[in-house]
Write a structure and sequence with these properties.
- By secondary structure, the chain is of the alpha/beta class.
- It has three helices and seven strands.
- Strand 4 and strand 5 form a beta hairpin.
- The chain is globular.
């Protein structure tokens, strides 16, 4: 009931791929600088709550991989397909934001596989300890 995926950079690309290919096993995901673009989007089998975080315009790896764009594309597609998405974008480039382990863990632990809706739906992320640059889509 509590299988999660999370990662940063290449680990987040893997977690993004798992959402697309193995969502039927996941309770939630916390993805830091991941997204789609290096592989095609296909509608996940099961709607899964996803926390998507990027580092803003400077979140580029190797001058080629633009995590801000890939994360936003993923957020839009997941939202269109009915997933609960919390979208966060800091401005510190390709790095984990301060406190990410704390509120990332909160996001994951708030969700279980059996829930049909996110407990965070309709809430104010900031009042729960998320940064003020996070929003529920």
């Amino acid at each position: 009931t509590r299988i999660y995926t999370s990662g940063f950079s290449a680990g987040s690309l893997w977690s993004s791929y798992l959402i697309l290919e193995r969502s039927e096993y996941l309770a939630a995901a916390a993805i830091f600088s991941g997204g789609i673009g290096l592989f095609p989007y296909q509608k996940p089998q099961r709607t899964t709550p996803v926390l998507l975080v990027d580092g803003g315009p400077g979140d580029v790896y190797g001058g080629v991989v633009n995590f801000e764009t890939m994360t936003e594309d993923f957020a839009q597609r997941l939202t269109q397909d009915g997933h609960f998405v919390m979208r966060c974008s800091h401005t510190r480039g390709h790095r984990l934001p301060q406190g990410a382990t704390s509120w990332g863990f909160d996001f994951l632990s708030t969700h279980s596989y059996a829930q049909s809706q996110s407990p965070l739906l309709g809430s104010d992320p900031v009042s729960r300890g998320y940064p003020n640059w996070c929003e529920i889509r």
